[in-house]
ROK family transcriptional regulator (Neorhizobium phenanthreniclasticum), 401 residues
Amino acid sequence: MLFGTNLDRAQRFNRRVVLETIRVNGPLSRAEVARLTGLSAQTVTNIIDQFKPAGLLIEKPRRTGGRGQPPIDLVINPSAAFSFGISFDDRSLVVVLLDLGGEIRAEVELPVSHPTPGIILPLMEAAVNQLISKTRISRELIWGAGVVMPVLVSQGNPTALGPSSVPDWQNFPVAEKLRERLDLPVFLDNDATAAAIGELLFGAGRQFSDFFYIYLGVGVGGGIIISSRPYRGAFGMSGEIGHMISMPGGRPCPCGNRGCLERYVSLSAADAAFREEPETFGAINLDELYEGFEAQDPRLVEWLDEAAEHLRNAIVSVENLFDPQAVILGGPVPDTILDALIARIEPSLISVSHRQGNASSRLLKAETGLDSRVLGAASLAIFDSMTPDFSVLKKEAVEAE
């Protein structure tokens, strides 16, 4: 039994509990933090004192009309820490600097045409250094960098189901190579899970501990949040709602199956409907596609009707399987598309886990908007540093045996 090690882990866990409680519910007094966390008042005071050198919290008197000394409220200091979000595909590389409050302080976007590791890694490094120089933020305040890619991430490395827009990155050790260049912690995730974490920290997911995020883009992905933590599965590939069979024997999918949801709901499917041709699984002219939506092109209106039907069935399956507090629909697409899909889905959204109230309390639009992917990437380092890790307690229990 390693008492010292266990005590240190418990202290680290408690620090994260306090910080996350203030982030989610602040401003809070010390007494309110103690009540919400179940920790003693002295423990909370000790932890807050430990945060002071790093400036993670801001203390300010609460305005009250009563007598006596007003309690001191605690809020997160957004300038106390920062993280980088890095997102790329076959069209562009986007790098942002995010503060602890979820605000993007600076960003750079570069067009790319051949996103191979040899080309992109130096561009990532240069973009990060450019933003550090521009903002004059000390490296000591940077908690790390998160990277998202338009591929699945299995056991820490990129993988793909069928053709990919970035084939040269499959099984490439992205995090390891970028960590060597940046000398910062680097976190890699798929775009759907990263976007779900971003929504949990800074968007519509803040009010929930359990939700399913549907990521609509060129493909369709899913991010699962359970007990305020992402669930990635045994091999890091959970939430792949895009490859649920929606139409048995239907359209062929690069994954090898037929009738996958992605072949009916994704922007790739919308593009095929717009062109009135089979899907090519190649590059899509998104600007032209979005102009078609704005003009309410009949082909795209028909696609919306079909996509909503398939998506409704998928959401019902998600609710029946996971019983989440909500399903959040988002991704790097205009609000007009999300609004149109939600309006078509809500009226007949019925599942076994149907709860009191209307469907709009269960199906929500993401709040992070077009920045969802890169904001989610930037959230990875912040989430890792702030959110309590219950696996620590499991390790502690194992060692105690």
